[in-house]
Amino acid sequence: MLSVTLPRVALRSAAPARQWASAAQSVRYASTLKDAVAQVIPEKQEQLKALKAKHNNSSLGEVKLENLLGGMRGLKCMLWEGSVLDSERGIAFHGRSIPDCEKELPTAKDLGLKGKEMLPESMLWLLLTGKVPSVDEVRGLSAELAEKGKLPNYVEKIIDSFPKTLHPMTQFSAAVAALNHDSAFSAAYNKGIKKSEYWSPTYDDVITLIAKIPAIAARIYYNVFGKGDGKQAIDPSNDLIGNYANMIGYGDHEGMTDYLRLYIAIHGDHEGGNVSAHTLHLVGSALSDPFLSYSAGLAGLAGPLHGLANQEVLGFCLGLQKAVGENASDEKVKEHLWSTLNSGRVVPGYGHAVLRSTDPRFLALSRFCDTRPELQKDSLVQLVQQLARVAPGVLTEHGKTKNPNPNVDSASGCVLYSYGMTEFKYYTVVFGISRALALTQLVWDRAYGMGIERPKSFSVDALQKMLK
Questions:
Q1: Which residues form a coiled coil (predicted)?
Q2: 306: annotated active-site residue
Q3: Is 86 a catalytic residue?
Q4: In terms of residue numbers, what domain contains 368?
Q5: Catalytically annotated residue among 278, 281, 336, 352
């Protein structure tokens, strides 16, 4: 609930006991990851304190007009703990590349489940602590998420009340925001919690939200498209995505289930500057709870310049397949690409706002396709792989693309389609499930005591006067 019946000063003076801590600790496994985070925070706080003391006035670079007019691209002005994106090497999670994570993070097989891909729970642990979890730690975290995964009745009723014609992302954002009703952070803040302890109820909300997101997404899938079990049943012995796959009707499909694990693990955090991550961080900087912050991030993800990219790629590939036929030669594909470029259109799925080399996330998905016989036989997947060979040369010759290499969107939606999920409008919801892992930054924002984000803005007239 958003309303506050007592003034903040009165709440501070009351200074009640910290009741917010008991909820998570009363549940089996609930304190395991939280204890790990609590151990890491003091050291990181001291590291930041020392950095501020020594370098608070050090310059990180100058701001140019092109930065201001170009969406602040390239400006070094955000603290983001979980990942750093390098233009050549790609994303690294606490210094670990995607290949590193694939080797080191516990997998479905490690937990005795069907499948071989790393689990999003493993990535969640890494993002929050900077450390690779043990198999038992991941098993405990999976059990905690399953225990907290059921939706409250009021949220189910809200989702069921939506018209089927309402976009799935609108439903997703609204349902997530409604979970704010039970926010541990909001309750603790209204009771007068100390600023140094903000991170703890924020953590509780983040874990609760991540646990419930699959059920929200699955209920929307069932209501809009009529697919799935319609009950959002949760098996306590299954992992987060194993349960999600069951809910949407793919529980017996090992390939799709394992693909969703990989997809969600590698899409979860991609530095803080992208729209969805930046938005949830910005809204969270006002001390909005994680449910409202993530809901805002989903609204950003729904935009065609962000989360819809894999749909555009899929549409392009299906159109290309229709135009050139299956098993077309490289020359035929090149002709179609040149026709696209010469007409003033772009080839979607190539290039990246930051990367200047092949997206490691694309390489991970491509590697997955290489391990699945059913995908190697699929004509659409074969076309995606053919494009990855052919398109960079055409785009390089064309000369207007800074990075002619494939990004993650060039493959991600096409594999979903090949596995039978043909509902284009739902793809961004799947992306949204993964982006929930970026909520880990809110825990760090509160642990570091970060202030409200408030950059300086200028009018065109003011800029003209300044730049005379």
A1: none
A2: yes
A3: no
A4: 309-418
A5: 352
